[in-house]
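[Automated response] Your request has been received and processed.

Submitted sequence:
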Amino acid sequence: MRETLKALGRKVLFVVAGAFVALPIAIAAAYWWAGLTPRRPPSVPARAVFLWAPYVGIPAHKRGMWVDCEFDARIGSDYCRITNIDGQLDYQGMFRSYTSGSPVLENDLLIDQSATNKNWPELAFWLGDVWVPLVHLKNGDVLIPQDDYEAGKKKLDATHK
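Generated structure:
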């Protein structure tokens, strides 16, 4: 009987020790996985960047949006698309330059993922049924949705004071 209790005690100790080792590894793996950029859906162009949704404090399912912009010569405007994490279109529309109010040509339409991601929760607009970010470009300019251009310009003016 005493041998059986000793064997059982060793098994319990082994399980508890294993849990103390496995739990931190599982938590670290969850944080690592939550921070990986999701796979680009086939419907999302290669030039699109992924913007993370605001952090919720714990590893959770991945949340965010894909943003891509291009100069559309037919309409003479910058045209941006916001798609959800799965590649379904949430918003599309014309955008204008903060600095000039006019379109930015294709070779300057390089989205600064870091600056856009850093500022999008505060510098975004509720258009239709989706948050639409102000799109920061690598050349320092910012694209503002034409649907709410004046409000976007005011938001940016306030951040530059």
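Summary generated for your ticket: Helices lie at 2-34, 113-119, 149-159. The two ends are 79 Å apart (CA to CA).
If you did not submit this request, please reply to this message.
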